[in-house]
Amino acid sequence: LADKMKIVPSVIVKKLFMQGKIVTVNQEIDYDTAEEIALEFDVLCEKEEVVDVIEELLKEEEEDEKKMKKRPPVVCVMGHVDHGKTSLLDAIRHTNVIDREAGGITQHIGASVVTVNGEKITFLDTPGHEAFTAMRMRGANSTDIAILVVAADDGVMPQTVEAINHAKAAGIEIVVAINKIDKPSANIDRVKQELSEYELIPEDWGGSTIFVPVSAKTGEGIQDLMEMLLLTAEVSELKANPNRRARGLVIEAQLDKGKGPVATVLVQKGTLRIGDAIAAGSAYGKVRAMMDDKGRRVKEAGPSTPVEILGLNDVPNAGEVFVGCKNDKDARSFAETFISQNKAKLLEDTKGKLSLDDLFTQIKEGNLKELNIVVKADVQGSVEAIKQSLLKLSNEEVVVKIIHGGVGAINESDVSLASASNAIIIGFNVRPDATAKETAEREGVDVRLYRVIYNAIEDVQAAMKGMLDPVF
Ligand code: GDP
């Protein structure tokens, strides 16, 4: 058949594999299957091309430095529950007078842009690290800076530590906002003291982390915080090329009764314009209308700009990558390829995840130099004991990194962190909860449970022996 169609047999084999049929080159296929392939061949050809395009797009292209322009920072807010993340985001939006000029209510599109001293900052409106790590799990980095909110009357709490570790694992900047300083029980120094145990040391204590005392209630310090975000962005030299086809992330999406599928996208590179053909995950279409976060109609959106768009044929998932395409046809085949590729890709990703069993093979193939571990235990003492023993296993060739440690059942946050950071999870006298278990299975995260500390250490050590590069 391949000969008749003048194509390489592997294309047909691959196509059938996508449908779940395992065939070899020498195998006979029945007439119906052959006919189906022949009929679909035109489309298939395009898909093969699109796969290449996807692969090219997903690889971080080398951009011409000269074409790069400064872009606003994208900021998210993380921290323990009730420490004031939502209030802080509200306070930030309210200090921005432009909201009111536009006629009152700020549109909720999942992200907002604030102008400070003539410079823009983009905020992702979903507080917490879950949304952030969910995106990272799909391979998408959404954020440049995390504001770590810590209530001055409560100090560092378990989710504060989670947030720190999620942000660190993603390699993003952390700016600390010590909130609720209006409260009589506020103790700013205590927060500084507690955070310094997590390597977040304030500048006035000789460290390099920016701490800003704020009150989301009175608005005190908010302006300072904004200026510190701009300073951090300045130092990071955030840039993107605005003169190329747009590419970015879906922040949120839903089906509107009147408007059809509505998606908020964050443009990360290039410029998105009305009339552009785009594909977002399995959805595709032409941008019919665009609205900014103030509810104003806009014609184009450049890097770091969130916009709500109309015109997709379906509702994409949050965290999906969107790409601007040459034309409608390309956008459509892109989306269709995404659907067919997805299953295979997921399988591949799962196989790629780190597991103690195949550590050695992974090293040989990919030269893994860091072993990332999440430790959960029933009591703090055990967490520390396991952490210390594991860290000691580090040697010249392999560095053991405990990217997160905490007390309590293994939760979804632990699993998503491990998945996004290619880490394994070690549980001591604890179990994963139901959602965590499900997520771990789906994401292929290796979760190891132990009742004896020694056994845990021994297992990792054994796996690491295989990790050592041969010495010549
Ligand atoms: P989140 O769970 O982190 O999003 O926290 P919220 O923003 O919902 O705030 C939790 C509670 O703390 C609410 O009752 C807020 O009114 C209160 N709160 C937030 N920020 C401040 C603040 O700066 N000062 C005071 N006194 N209360 C605050």
Automatic annotation (TrEMBL):
GTP binds at residues 79-86, 125-129, 179-182. It is found in: Cytoplasm. Residues 70-239 form the Tr-type G domain. Residues 73-221 are annotated as: G-domain. One of the essential components for the initiation of protein synthesis. Protects formylmethionyl-tRNA from spontaneous hydrolysis and promotes its binding to the 30S ribosomal subunits. Also involved in the hydrolysis of GTP during the formation of the 70S ribosomal complex. Belongs to the TRAFAC class translation factor GTPase superfamily. Classic translation factor GTPase family. IF-2 subfamily. This is Translation initiation factor IF-2. It comes from Dorea ammoniilytica. The gene is infB. The chain holds residues 380 to 851 of 948 of the full protein.
